[in-house]
């Protein structure tokens, strides 16, 4: 056991995140697509943000205005993009600190114009289009075009920068050549009406990248808002089945300490009711099995089913607020209390682990790797 580190520990490999960033930036550049690096998934961790900025992301994006204002105060020289529509109480800060915001409500846009006039400062907006995922955006094309004409002809400080869409976040609708081509058709109609080119046509997030891999991305799409593929890199490989040898899916590793090892039944004993979160789990009776409890829980990672044990013969059984229970019966490792167990993860885990003050962070830098393999 390494007594120099406090557990649970999130190990963040900046080199692998840099590799993912370089690969995707190069791929997008070849297709005339800029990347807005979405930093909310790592709680705007400064070390990771610097990797994305240095790696060629044109914009830095988040749904949390506090994360973006912090970037400005740290003098990170990238345009910022607020990817959740502004709340009324945020308007002043949006104009002061944010370069671009996504919008779909005319009242909010008018408030932005009013505040821009006070601050004597321009602000760029991207109007969102709902292509069927049923989250944010204009659903009616004519309403959208009317708003673009209103902004173009009546507003002095708020500038129509472009249009965009969101897919697969709420309604799980898959980005396709067809639905993104429709977004491009709408963009063309807007350009014909306002008499100029839109600067940005944002075609979604990580889930739109398969269209690039398959050469099916409509040519008019010139921006993607990417978070998961840069900082985790697992979805495209594990969910979409792409063999991406230039991308890493082990950029972040959770390490937790074993605090109990016991042989126990696999089916709870007594009258079943609800767990601590109001759920009624389903259990399979596998008899007596050897299990370990680790000192980390839902308060840190929220969802245990997306954790991936690095020991393939370890199986996650479940978790409570502060405990992770794993089956170690089939493992070749003779685990002892005090040992450290490691887990890969998906985006949802990283979102919470990077936000938890109870999880320590350790960054792997290039010089550490050189020492390790010297």
UniProtKB/TrEMBL annotation:
Database matches in InterPro entries: Ala_racemase (IPR000821), Ala_racemase_N (IPR001608), PLP-binding_barrel (IPR029066)
Q: Name one GO molecular function term.
A: alanine racemase activity
Please give the GO cellular component terms listed in this UniProt entry: cytosol
The Alanine racemase N-terminal domain, residue ranges: 12-231
Q: Which domain of life is it from?
A: Bacteria
**Keyword terms of this UniProt record:** Isomerase, Pyridoxal phosphate
Keyword Amino-acid biosynthesis assigned to the entry: answer is no
Q: Which cofactor does it need?
A: pyridoxal 5'-phosphate
Indicate yes or no for the key word DNA damage.
no
Protein name per the record: Alanine racemase
Protein species of origin: Terrisporobacter othiniensis
């Amino acid at each position: 056991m390494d007594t120099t580190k406090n557990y649970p520990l999130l190990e963040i490999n900046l080199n692998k995140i840099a590799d993912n960033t370089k690969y995707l930036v190069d791929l997008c550049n070849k297709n005339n697509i800029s990347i807005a690096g979405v930093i909310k998934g790592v709680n705007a961790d400064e070390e990771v943000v610097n990797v994305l900025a240095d790696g060629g992301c044109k914009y830095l994006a988040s749904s949390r205005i506090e994360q973006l204002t912090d970037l400005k105060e740290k003098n990170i020289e990238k345009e910022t993009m607020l990817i959740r529509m502004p709340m009324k109480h945020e308007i002043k800060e949006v104009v002061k600190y944010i370069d671009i915001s996504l919008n779909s409500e005319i009242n909010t846009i008018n408030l932005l114009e009013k505040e821009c006039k006070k601050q004597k400062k321009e602000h760029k907006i991207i109007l969102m289009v709902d292509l069927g995922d049923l989250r944010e955006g204009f659903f009616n094309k004519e309403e959208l075009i009317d708003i673009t004409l209103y902004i173009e002809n009546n507003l002095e400080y708020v500038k129509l920068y472009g249009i965009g869409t969101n897919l697969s976040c709420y309604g799980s609708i898959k980005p396709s050549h067809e639905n993104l081509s429709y977004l491009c058709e709408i963009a063309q109609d807007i350009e014909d009406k306002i008499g100029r080119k839109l600067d940005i046509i944002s075609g979604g997030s990580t889930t739109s990248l398969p269209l690039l891999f398959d050469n099916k991305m409509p040519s008019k799409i010139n921006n993607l808002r990417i978070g998961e593929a840069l900082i985790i890199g697992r979805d495209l490989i594990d969910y979409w089945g792409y063999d991406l040898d230039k991308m890493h899916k082990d950029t972040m590793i959770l390490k937790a300490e074993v605090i109990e090892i016991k042989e126990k039944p696999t089916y709870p004993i007594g009258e079943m009711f609800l767990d601590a979160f109001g759920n009624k789990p389903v259990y399979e009776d596998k008899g007596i099995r050897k299990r370990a409890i680790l000192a980390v829980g839902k308060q840190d990672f929220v969802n245990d089913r997306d954790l991936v044990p690095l020991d393939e013969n370890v199986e996650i059984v479940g978790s409570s607020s502060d405990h992770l229970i794993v089956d170690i019966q089939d493992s070749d490792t003779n685990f002892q209390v005090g040992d450290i167990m490691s887990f890969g993860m998906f985006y949802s885990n990283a979102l919470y682990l990077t936000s938890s003050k109870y999880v320590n962070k350790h960054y792997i830098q290039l010089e550490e790797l050189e020492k390790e393999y010297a």
